[in-house]
TrEMBL record:
GO molecular function, one term: DNA binding
The keyword DNA-binding is assigned to this record: no
UniProt cross-references to NCBIfam families, sorted A to Z: competence protein ComEA helix-hairpin-helix repeat region
Origin organism lineage: Bacteria, Thermotogati, Thermotogota, Thermotogae, Kosmotogales
Protein's recorded name: Competence protein ComEA-like protein with helix-hairpin-helix repeat region
Annotated source species: Mesotoga infera
Domain Helix-hairpin-helix DNA-binding motif class: residue ranges: 58-77, 88-107, 133-152, 163-182, 204-223, 234-253
Length: 256
């Protein structure tokens, strides 16, 4: 076997060194190539039923029939009223009717309100003096209803009873409770007959009836929220705590 010359050995050594340097360089570049694969994004899961008192606008927007505008209206109503007491109270939110509520009931719930931080206005709104923009802060009162309120008091004078409010176009039994909670008290929920209308009277007005204290007044309001308007005297007996004797005492003082 022929021995390699010194020059040949030098050439082979140089080539070997160059090969090693190239291998090291390529290996380093491969290690330095960043991983271009996007890391998996964390997916936020939403648990149903949604709590109307804590859900965000984005979460409420997932409900059938509730778009961004209605989701915003729900949150604004919640802030103004201090929270939902039951799912039926959704009917007080502009744009939500009975059919929509029926679809939502399996998907929503109402949690406890106590201890929860809510935004409450500094003081009740005086519906007889408040300007347009202030009236629009009342739940369910948009631009058109606010203008109708101002038009009513300019043409017919101040609001002195709930029945006056109910004569304003767009204001009815479904949203009167939310309105009464945000305004200064009116006189009495009576009609021309001098009787208290149990379908529109506030709790404080119902308490003026004999035998009806704060507890029974609250139950009457809750009953009509859940079951709709009273249509006959006997339906009042379905309210827990109201018996034949109380009904007899108030029968001549109320109407529907």
């Amino acid at each position: 076997m022929r021995r390699l010359s010194i020059k040949e050995i030098q050439i082979i050594g140089s080539v070997t060194v160059l090969v090693l340097i190239g291998f090291v360089a390529v290996s380093g570049n491969l290690r330095s190539i960043p991983d271009t694969k996007d890391p998996p994004e964390s997916v936020k899961t939403v648990a149903f039923p949604l709590d109307l008192n804590v859900s965000t606008e984005e979460e409420l927007d997932l409900l059938p029939g509730i778009g961004p505008s209605k989701a915003k209206a729900i949150v604004e109503y919640r802030k103004a009223s201090g929270g939902f007491n039951d799912v039926e109270e959704l009917l007080n939110v502009k744009g939500i009717g009975a059919k929509t509520l029926d679809k939502l009931k399996p998907l929503i719930k109402v949690g406890e309100i106590s201890g929860r931080e809510v935004e409450v206005g500094p003081e009740p709104i005086d519906i007889n003096t408040a300007p347009l923009e202030e009236l629009k802060k009342i739940p369910g009162i948009g631009d058109s209803k606010a203008k109708a309120i101002i038009d009513h008091r300019e043409k017919k004078g101040e609001f002195v009873s709930v029945s006056d409010l109910l004569s304003v176009p767009g204001i009815g039994p479904s949203n009167i409770e939310a309105i009464l909670e945000c305004i200064k008290p009116l006189e009495v929920a009576i009609t021309g007959s001098g009787k208290i209308n149990v379908n529109t009277a506030s709790e404080s007005e119902l308490e003026r009836l004999p035998g009806i204290g704060p507890v029974l007044a609250s139950r009457i309001v809750e009953y009509r929220k859940s079951n709709g308007r009273f249509s006959k005297f006997e339906e009042l007996l379905e309210v827990k705590g109201i018996g034949e004797s109380i009904l007899k005492d108030i029968k001549e003082l109320i109407e529907f």
